[in-house]
Structure formats: structure tokens, C-alpha cells
From TrEMBL:
It comes from Pseudomonas ogarae (strain DSM 112162 / CECT 30235 / F113). This is DNA-binding transcriptional regulator SoxS. Residues 150-248 form the HTH araC/xylS-type domain. One of its GO terms (molecular function) is DNA binding. SMART domains: HTH_ARAC (SM00342). Regulatory protein of the TOL plasmid xyl operons. XylS activates the xylXYZLTEGFJQKIH operon required for the degradation of toluene, m-xylene and p-xylene. Gene3D superfamilies: Homeodomain-like (1.10.10.60), Jelly Rolls (2.60.120.10). SUPFAM superfamilies: Homeodomain-like, RmlC-like cupins.
């Protein structure tokens, strides 16, 4: 029987397929580029994507991404396990969407990610609780005019060693700082400063794995004034130290 909950690591290798069951993909760290039936989005912390049964989808993460994946066993399982929540859950699972998570939902996803999800009881009960909690999720439509991520990413990468402000990105996106903040939260589930921090740290991971630069120099190149602050940020983001990431090259 297929596991209901799994922790998965995604890389630059592209995955493209479809399956006969619905799936939810929750971002834990990094950024996962995701496309469902031609509609593109990005899965990061505090957001998830709904993949309806039979929908063709593809995903990949140039800098690496870690996600919690919920594979819904069947419609019968939803009916039997969700009870009064079943109809709302079916509506959620029937439509392609990228959805933000509120604070409570994010805490539940993080708790499940840190639990032994290979235990069938924890996986089943955790999936039921998670689905029930999502019934009032506010939908953010996939597609449409999105933020100019290529230009924003290029600016962050080119200036990673220097202080960056939300106003810098707002000028590139031709938005006010307040509007940019709202768009980032809606589209990515994170604030612009969180996005900058994550982008810098993923740039650091690439340098750790692909270069011989000292760790202190890498820290400086991605905007950290001290190696200890950089190490603490890497540990929070990826759960391992910079030295461990270097050895995993």
C-alpha cells in the first residue's frame, strides 16, 4: 500500500508525470518550481499545491527543496475518514491550486514533518487532521500575472553580499513596498525579507558544494558578517551545518 505521508527532497532533476490519486505538496524548506496542467507556481514554506487525481504535473528545484507530501489513498478513504469534512475535502482536492497556510496549519505541517510518518497510525491520523484543517484554506489561483521572479532573483544574487531592502525589490516589481509584501505572502507564503534570506542561503549551499571557498568567505558573499551567524542561519534553514553540506557535495 502506498504511504500516505512522505518526506521528499527535490533537486534540479525534473519530475513530470500524473497519477490516479490526488496529492498535496507542502513546502518545508527551499523553493520547488511546480506546474500543474500548464499553470505554474512555487512551493515554499507556509504554502502548498493541490494536484487533483489524473492531473499532469511537473516539478523541480534548482537549489534543492524539502517537502511533506500527502498522497490521498482514494475517494472512499476521504469519505470514511473525514466524516462531516469529506465534502469540503473533496472540493479542495478537485481543483488545481496553490494555497497559503495560516500559522496553525504551518505548525501542524512542521510537527508532522518531524514525526515518524512511516508509522501507519501517525500517517493516517496526521493526514486526516491536516485535511480537516485545510477546509477553510483561502485559495490563491495558479497562473495569471505573477511577480517578476527572474528579475528579483537576479538582483538578489548580484547583491547578495550587501544589505538588501524590500524597497529595492519593490522598485524592480514596480509596486509599493506594502503591495509587494502582500503579493509575496499571497504567492509564496513568505515575506520579501524571508524570500531574500532563503535565496541567499540557497546561493550559499551552491557555493559550499561547488567551490573550494572557505566557509567564512561564503558567509561574507551571502551577506553575513560572521561565520557563526551564517552557520546558525544554515542550521535553521536546512537542519545541518555548513560543514555537513560541504561534505555532501
Amino acid at each position: 500500500m502506498r504511504p500516505i505521508l512522505t518526506l521528499r527532497h527535490y533537486s534540479h532533476d525534473l519530475i513530470a508525470h500524473s497519477h490516479d490519486h490526488a496529492q498535496l505538496v507542502f513546502g518545508l524548506s527551499g523553493a520547488l518550481d511546480f506546474e500543474v496542467e500548464g499553470h505554474g507556481s512555487q512551493v515554499v514554506q507556509q504554502s502548498f499545491v493541490v494536484v487533483p487525481a489524473g492531473a499532469h504535473h511537473g516539478c523541480g528545484s534548482p537549489h534543492g527543496s524539502r517537502c511533506l507530501v500527502l498522497d490521498v489513498p482514494s475517494d472512499d478513504w476521504v469519505e470514511q475518514c473525514l466524516g462531516d469534512h469529506a465534502e469540503a475535502s473533496r472540493r479542495l482536492l478537485d481543483d488545481t491550486a496553490r494555497l497559503p497556510l495560516d500559522a496553525g496549519q504551518s505548525q501542524l505541517v512542521s510537527w508532522l514533518a518531524g514525526s515518524p510518518v512511516d508509522d501507519p497510525v501517525i500517517a493516517q491520523q496526521g493526514a486526516v487532521l491536516l485535511l480537516a484543517s485545510l477546509n477553510n484554506a483561502r485559495q490563491a489561483t495558479l497562473g495569471g500575472r505573477r511577480l517578476p521572479y527572474a528579475a528579483l532573483n537576479a538582483h538578489i544574487d548580484q547583491n547578495a553580499a550587501y544589505p538588501l531592502q524590500v524597497a529595492d525589490l519593490a522598485r524592480i516589481a514596480d509596486l509599493s513596498s506594502a503591495r509587494l509584501h502582500a503579493r509575496f505572502v499571497a504567492e509564496c507564503g513568505q515575506t520579501p525579507m524571508d524570500y531574500i534570506r532563503s535565496r541567499r542561503l540557497h546561493k550559499a549551499v551552491a557555493l559550499l558544494r561547488d567551490s573550494q571557498l572557505p566557509i567564512g568567505e561564503i558567509a561574507h558573499r551571502v551577506g553575513y558578517s560572521s561565520q557563526s551567524a551564517f552557520a546558525a542561519a544554515v542550521l535553521r534553514e536546512f537542519g545541518v551545518s555548513p560543514g555537513t553540506l560541504r561534505r555532501q557535495r
